[in-house]
Amino acid sequence: MKNFAFFLISIVFLVIMAVKCTFCGEGVSGSRGLLNHYKKCQKKAERTHRSVSHALETHHAELAAVATRALEEIASQAVNDPPLPDLPRSPSPLPLRPSGRPGRRIRLPARYRDEPPEPPQPLPPPPPTIVTEPNPDPEPNSCAPPSPPTWIKTEPNTFGVYKVFPHRPTHDPEDSICLEDLCRSPGLLTPDSVVSADSSSSTAPWFPFLNATVGRLMSWFHLGGNLRTHQKLDELVNKVIWSEDWDRENLRGFSAARENKRLDNAVDAMPGQAPDGWKTGSVKLKLPAPKVAVPEAQAVEFEITGIMYRPLLDVMVEAFQSPAFQQYHITPFELRWDPQHDPDNPDASMDEHDHPVDEFGLPPLPLGHQPLYGEIYTTPSMLKEHKSLPKTAPLHLETIIAAYMFWSDSTHLANFGDASLWPLYTFFGNQSKYTRAKPTSNACHHQAYLPSLPDTLIDFYRNTFGVPPSAEVLTHLKRELMHRVWDLLLSPEFIHAYVNGIAVKCYDQVKRLIFPRFFTYGADYPEKVLLATIKNLGGCPCPRCFVKKDQILDMGSKADMRRRGNLREDSSSWRQMIERVRGWIYAQGRLVGSAAVDRLLGPQSWVPTRNAFSVLAEHGFNLFSMFVPDLLHEVELGVVKAFFTHIVRILYTLGIEAVDELNSRFRQIPTFGRGTIRRFHRNVSDMKKMAARDFEDILQCLIPALEGLLPEPHNSLVLTVCFTLATWHAYAKLRLHTGISLNCFRKTTTELGVEMRRFRRTTCEAYETYELPSEYNRRIRRQAKKNSKTNSSSTAPAQGSKKRKYFNLSTYKWHSIGHYPDAIPRVGTTDSVSTQNSELAHRRVKQLYSRTNKRDVEPQIANHERRNRILISMNNRMNDAAAADNITAPDSVQNSGAGDRIRPENEPLPRTPPRQHHHISESKRAFYNIYEFLDETDGDPAVKNFLPQLKSHLLARLLDLPYDGDETEFSDQDLLDVNIVQHRIYAHQVMRINYTTYDMGRDEDTINPRTKSDIMVLSREDQDDSSTAHPYWYARVLGIFHAEIRHVGERSKSLRIQRMEFLWVRWFGRDLSYKAGWQARRLHRVGFVDFEDGGAFGFLDPSEVIRAAHVIPAFHYGRTSDLLPPSIARRPEQDDTDFRFYYINCFVDRDMFMRYCDHAVGHRATYSSTSSPGNVENSDTSEEGVDSEEEDEADAPAGGVSVDESDLELDADEGEGEDEELGSSDSGGENEEDSEDEESHDEDNGGDDEGYEGENDENITNSYGYDAL
Q1: pTM, to two decimals
Q2: What is the spatial distance between Cα 720 and Cα 502, in angstroms, rounded to a whole number?
C-alpha cells in the first residue's frame, strides 16, 4: 500500500508540474522550465515579432493620420485668425530626481569627442618656376624688386600647431608619419616600423655571411639577449626557422666559431658604408711632484694604453648614411601654436611675407600664438647655429648640422665584484626624442670607453719620486686623464670638419656639407666637474654659473636669478690663468693644492687642468653651455630623496608608530598604469634598493600618505611643500612646453624656494633629528671598510651613537633647480637630455659583458658592439629584401588565425587600433540573466532600481540625447520599449581607453574592475560658479558589460538589434567644504555618494570616459560603513567598508597633470572645461636676497598637474649606476651632507604590469559578488 500511495502521489505531482507551451505545445516541467523554454521557443519569437510589427504599423498609421489632421487645422487657423502677440514664457520647474530631491540645473557642454592626434601638416608645394625673357634694354633708373623672404610655414593641424622654417627644407621626415607613429603605448595596434635598405647596392642582404639561413641564426643569437625565455624561443621558431629563406641544408657543417670569425673579419668599410671599426689609442699624463721643478714639456710621463674609441667623424658619417637618416631633421624650425585655431573654420589666408624677420630669418610670433619647446631641432640654439653656417658651399652643397649629444656614466657590470665600465655614448639631436629614447631604435652609438687611473700608477709614482701620490695629485690626474682622452677624440680631422664641414653622401643619395656641432653633455655631478674643470663641491660648485656656495640657499629669489646671469665662459683670460698656474706646479714644483694655487683659482673653483674643449673656443663654442640639467640625479635622487629622508627623520622623533603608519599607508596606495605607479611592497622608510623612479612615485603619492602624521602647523606646511615640489617636478618632466607653461614653471620655481626655506626654518628647527637606522648602518660599514684598508686600530662607533642630522639646502642639487626653466628653451625639454637615456643604454653594455671572459673586457665589449651593429644593418637589408619579394615575415602577425576565431576567449584582449576610443571584448562567454541576477542580489542597495536606471541610460543613448548624468526621466512605457534580448547582459574583465595626450600623442589606459577601476569624465555641472566649478566627474567602475538591445515603440528609430556597451559605476562626489586646487595647494578631495542618494550608482557610456584616474584613499580620516551596507559593489578585500574620503592624484603622470591646465596643446576636447594655474591670482612671492617676511605670505603656486607616463615609456623606468672613483672629491670645500656615499642600485626597469593578469573574459566566475562583475 505504501508503494502504491507513493506511486499515486508521484503521478499527481507530475501532472501538476507538467506544463505545455501555449505557442508550440511542447510539454515542460514547472514554471522555471517554461521560462527557459520561452527563451528558445522559435514559435513564440515569430508570433511576438509579428504582433510587434503589426502593432507598430497600426500605431504609425494612426500617428500619421493625426499629424495630417493637425497640420490641416493649423493651416486653416493661420489663414482666419489674427496673429497673437509674443508672450513671455514662464520658467519650467526643476524636475524631481528619483530620490525625491529637486534636480540640479545642468549646463551641458559639448559632447566629449575623442580626437586622435593629427600628424603635422606637410609643407605647401613650391610655387611654379616662371622663366622670363631678360630685358635687353633696361631703364637706367629702374630698381630691382626686393627679393622675397625665404621663410616658409605649414598649415596648422587640428590642434593649431604649425612649423615655420627659415627656408624650404629638402628633407622633412614628418611628411610621411601617420597616426601609428604617434602612439606612445605598446598596447596599441601599430605596424612594425619598416626600414628601407638601399636597393641599388649589389651586396647580398645577408653579407658578411654566405646565406640567409646562417645570417638569421647568427642574428638571433647575438641580438636576442642573454635570457632564454619563451618569447625568445618563439622568435627562434617564427623569425628564423619559419622564415621563407630558411634552408636547413645550409647548416651542414655549421660552426659558430667560424661564423663569428667571418663576422669579425668583415672589412671595416662595409660595401657602400662608412668605416665603423673601433680604434685603440693611448694618452700620456704629465706627473707633478712636490719640489720637482721642471718645465711641463720635460715632466715625467705616465702612459695609459688600450683606450677603446671610435673617431667622432666615423660615427657621424655612419649615422647620416644609415636608414636612420630618414628620421633626421636637417633643417631646424620653430614650432608654434595658435590656441584659438578652429579646425572647422581655418584661416583662409597665410601670413603676409612683408613682415620683418628676426635674427633667425623667421617672421614675428603673431599675437596670441605661443612658441612650443620640445625637440632640440626646434630651439633657438639650433636655429642660431644653422643661421651661422656658410651660405654658399663648394659645389653648391646644402649645409646642414649634425647635432651631437653626449652622455657618459660609469656603471657596474655585475651584481658581485668590482667590474665596471665607463662608456661614452653619442646620440644625434636631429632625430626625434620619441624615437631616440627607445633602446630598440638603436640610436645610441658607443663612442668610447673611458679609462680609469690604473693601480700601477701609484707604484710608478712611488718608484719615480720616492713618495706616494697625494689625494690632490690623484684627483688632478683623474681630470687630466678625462681631457687627454677628449684630446684624442677632438682630432685635427674633426676640427677641420667643425670649421669647414665635411661632404657626405647621405642615405637619400644627396651629397651635403655637414658641420658637426656640440649641443649637450649629460652626466651626473662628479663627471660634470671633471668635464668643466672645476673643483668638486667647491666655493662655486655650479658648472654653469658663479653662484657661491653660501648663496645657494636663496634659490628662486630675485637676487639668485640675477646671480645666475653671471655665467662661466671659455675666455682667453681664463685659459691664460690656467697656463700660469700649471707653470707654478711643474716649473716651480709647487703643490697642486698649495695656498698660492688656491688663492688664484679657489674663488671661482677653477682647477689647474687644461680643458680639451677649449680647442673649439676660437670657433665660437662655449664648453660650459653644453652642460644640461640632470633630473634623475639632481632632483629625484637629489632634492626629492633628501626631502623625503628628512621627513622620515622627523617621524622617527615622534615615535616608531608614525613611521609604521607611513609604511602602512604606502602599501595601500593603488597601482596605476603600465608601471607608472608600482606597488610599494617594502617599507618606504627604509629606502632599500630604490632607484630614481621609486622616489618619483613616492613624491607623487606623498600627500595622502603623510597627511595628519605631524601636528599643526607643521602638517599644513609640509603638505604645502609636497604639493609645490610635486608641481615643480611635473612641470620639469613635461615633454612639450608652451610659452605659458614655461612662465608657470618659472613662477613655481620661485614658490618652491620660498616654501622649502620656510620648511627649513620652521619645521626642521622644531625637531632634533638624527641618523636613520639605514644611514647609521652605512656609516658603520664605511668606517669599518676604511679601517680595514688603513690597518687602523680604531674601532667602529659604539652602538647608539647616532649623529645629529640637519636639512641641508646649500647643495649643488638644490641650486640646479633654478637652471631648469631657462634650459628648456635653450636645449629642449628635460626628457630629451635626461641621463635616463644613458641608464637605459647600460643594459646593452651589461648584456655584452656577459659574453666576455671577464678579463680585459673593454676590447671584447667593443668587438661585440661592432658585431651587433653589423647584424642590425644586415637585418634591415634582409627585411627590406623580404618585403620586396612579398615574403610575409611572421614577426608581429596578430593572433587572428582560425584557432583564434574558434577560441577568442582563451586569449587576452588583443591590441587596440589607435583610432578607436575604447575597446571591449566581443566575447559572450560570461553572461547573466538580468532577472536572475536581481533576484539573487535582492536587498543589495547597489542594485536598487538597477533595471530602470539601465533602461533609462540605454534609452537616452538610443534617442541621441546629450549625457546629463542620466537625470532625464522617461515614462514606464518608454522603458518597456527598451528590450534586452534574452534578458542577458554580458560581462567583461577589462576595457582599454585610448586618449590623446597633451603633446599630441596617442596613449591608452586599461580599466579593470578588480584592480584599476577609477575613471574620469567631463563634468556636466554648471561652470558659471567659479567657487565650486570643477572640470571632471569621477567614478569607480563596478562592471564592464554589453547587451543586445531592440528598441520598439513610437520613439524607436530602428527595430534592428544593437550591441550597446555600458559601465556600471559608483559615483564619487566632490567635498565642497574642502579647499583644494592651485590656490589652496591641495589635491581635490572626493568621497563616495551615500547609497540613499538616488545618484550613488549609475551607468555610463564608455565613449564618455576620458581616461583612468588615480584615486588615493585619504588615510587620515579612516574608514566607514555608513555610506553603503554590505554589498557586491565593494571588492572582497575592503571588508565591507569604504574610506571616508579619497584624493584625486593629479600628479600621477604628465598627461594627468595637464588635464587640469588650459595650456595643454593636445587636450582640445577639454579646453573649455579646464583652467590654467598660471591664470590664478596669486600674491607676490618676490624676495630680495635672503628670506624676508614678505616671502612667508606668498600665495598660490603657478602649478599645473602631471607626471611620467609609461615609455615605452622611459619616464617611469629609471635606474642608476655609478663608479666609486667618481665619488672622490677635492680637498677643501666639501659638503658633509653631499659627500656621504649613497647606495645606488642599477636595477632592471621592466614594468611588472600589475593588474594586467586578468584580461581574459573566461576568468570571470559564474557567481554573484564582486568577482562576477
Answers
A1: 0.82
A2: 55
